[in-house]
Amino acid sequence: MLLDTASLYFRAYFGVPDSVKAPDGTPVNAVRGLLDFITRLVQDHHPDQLVACMDADWRPQWRVDLVPTYKTHRLAPESSEEEEIPDTLSPQVPIIEQVLDALGIARVGVPGYEADDVIGTLATHATTPVRIVTGDRDLFQLVDDARGVQVLYPIKGVGSAQLINEAALLDKYGVTGTEYADMAALRGDPSDGLPGVKGIGEKTATQLIREYGDLAGIRAAAADPLSKLTPARRKNLLEGAAYLDVAPTVVRVATDVPLPTFDPALPHEPLDPMTLEALTTQWGLGTSLTRLLDTLAATH
């Protein structure tokens, strides 16, 4: 089980009241919400291994070099690098990291890469079935029935997560996992600052992929005056050539991230009980941590 950790703690932050506070008054709604999510995921899905994948770099320079608008709208005001995060969430992220480390839950982030890229690398090289837990549709590109790679996409909480396999993708988008990145590049994604090709939305992108196979086939059709493309669509595709040259690299998750050595095994007991006890007292983690520890012990 691979957690898109930031996606989950953002969801926890907005889903758990900010009246949930530590003894000193610091909000810990994202911390406790994430612990509750992990408890539910372990109870419902019984993973043998669990990795909390982290954004060591939420906006990698190599993606920005290719598409300068990549995630620009998420930049904090007066900053060229920092992501805009709610004031009461950012102090909770180090607490989350410390708690995961004390529990012994593997936490992996790699400089120069997003959590998506860590997930892409682990999912691609896994020798066992994989479930990716994320609220980010970009990771649908990793869905692969033959290799047992599925996405759990939370609808409300993780308890009501939608299981995304190839049948679900075909039903909702008309594409397979391997075709999803081409569709996303054509369609664009305002939430990631990807402009897409003018005049091409999700349905048109899917229709073009069905007709011409993939992005390379679509671009070949645009360059072929005898193809059946409408003049307007041909014009938009040709005018979007510079974007289409680079967009696939930005949209596709990396699958060759140099990962550190780590132990993905789900812990049955805390790795560092004394540190965990101190964190529990300091931050008032209460029943959220107790439930998780009981759930982990029961998996032994």
Plain-language structure description:
It is elongated and about 70 Å long. The protein contains 13 helices and six strands. The longest helix has 17 residues, at 29-45. The chain is of the alpha/beta class. A six-stranded mixed β-sheet has the order 3-2-1-4-5-6, with helices on both faces. The two termini are 17 Å apart.
Gyration radius over CA = 21 Å
- Largest sheet geometry: 6 strands, mixed
Principal-axes geometry comes out as: elongated
The unreliable regions are: none
Which strands sit side by side, in order, in the main sheet?
Answer: 3-2-1-4-5-6
What are the defining features of this structure?
single chain, 300 residues, alpha/beta, 6-stranded mixed β-sheet, 6 strands
At a glance:
Helices cover 46% and strands 7% of the residues.
Which SSEs are present, and which pair or pack?
Elements: E1 2-4, H1 5-15, H2 29-45, E2 51-53, H3 61-66, H4 92-103, E3 106-108, H5 115-125, E4 130-133, E5 149-153, E6 162-164, H6 166-172, H7 177-187, H8 202-212, H9 215-223, H10 231-239, H11 241-251, H12 273-283, H13 286-298
Parallel strand pairs: 1-2, 1-4, 2-3, 4-5
Antiparallel strand pairs: 5-6
Helix pairs in contact: 1-2, 2-4, 2-13, 4-12, 7-8, 7-11, 8-9, 9-10
